[in-house]
TrEMBL record:
Keywords: Metal-binding, Molybdenum, Signal. Belongs to the bacterial solute-binding protein ModA family. This is Molybdate ABC transporter substrate-binding protein. SUPFAM superfamilies: Periplasmic binding protein-like II. It comes from Minwuia thermotolerans. It comes from the Bacteria. GO terms for biological process: molybdate ion transport.
Length: 254
């Protein structure tokens, strides 16, 4: 409930269309990199980019409002499929822009944290493990897939503290709600007080991919500018920004 309330609050206070030339709605795990992409675009063009970060359910409602939504960037490919089926986004505009890695994290000051995933998750049943909610969040779905492949899910699911998204997983670890968390590599890089214990092998879960799409509900007058922002994201400069933030750039798809 707290996550949903925060997402709705962010939407209510998002910059109105008059204050931004193009608006981007993105997953919370993209916070820093979308801000860097927007700043780079503004520096190059002088056009203002409005950014709203919200969970999937809030983004779904916002995307149906029309004028305030020009571009969506998300790791939830199934959700984008449903938006495409509902004629909310333009199918030809969909592009995979980046990938990510699933990692186990702990507090940086946790000197006794285990050195491997197996050791950390089999500490005699001690403590909670934070994951994003597998019923809603892509990061939680990938975490559950990896734990199942390792044969650990049935044992550990009762010890999971389920968060709204991978950024809330980080907050759970920071506040010691859980000793360990399963989040994205880029989440771990974004916080000095969080360290990456180990990475999950990619074959343990479905790929983590971020897609970008233009919406039909975006302002017609912004369509050309929105396309220019997409071109900027897909440019060498855009992919360089993604790489600097720890993402895996996908100039030719991933």
């Amino acid at each position: 409930m707290r996550k949903l309330a925060l997402a709705l609050l962010m939407i209510c206070h998002a910059a109105p269309a008059a204050a931004a030339d193009v608006t981007v709605f993105a997953s919370a795990s993209l916070e820093e990199v979308v801000e860097m992409l927007a700043e780079s675009f503004e520096d190059r063009t002088g056009e203002k980019v409005g950014i709203t970060l919200a969970g999937r359910s809030a983004l779904t409602r916002q995307s149906r409002r029309g004028p305030s939504t020009d571009i969506i960037i998300s790791a939830d490919i199934q959700w984008l499929d449903r938006l495409e089926d509902g004629k909310a986004i333009m199918a030809p505009s969909r592009r995979v822009i980046a990938g990510n890695r699933l990692v186990l994290v702990a507090r940086s000051d946790d000197a006794d944290a285990a050195a491997t995933i197996e050791a950390a998750l089999s500490e005699g049943g001690r403590g909670m493990i934070a994951i994003a909610d597998p019923s809603n969040a892509p990061g939680g779905q990938r975490a559950r897939e990896a734990l199942r492949e390792l044969g650990l899910w049935d044992t550990l699911k009762a010890r999971t503290a389920q968060a709204g998204d991978t950024r809330e997983v980080i907050r759970f670890v920071q506040r010691r709600v859980a000793r360990y968390g399963i989040a994205y590599h880029t989440d771990a890089l974004a916080f000095e007080d969080i360290k990456e214990v180990a990475a999950f092998a990619e074959e343990l879960h479905d790929p983590i991919r971020y897609e970008l799409a233009l919406t039909f509900q975006g302002q017609a007058l912004n369509r050309e500018l929105s396309s220019r922002f997409v071109e900027h994201v897909l440019s060498p400069a855009g992919f360089e920004i993604l790489a600097a933030a720890g993402f895996i750039p996908c100039p030719d798809g991933c």
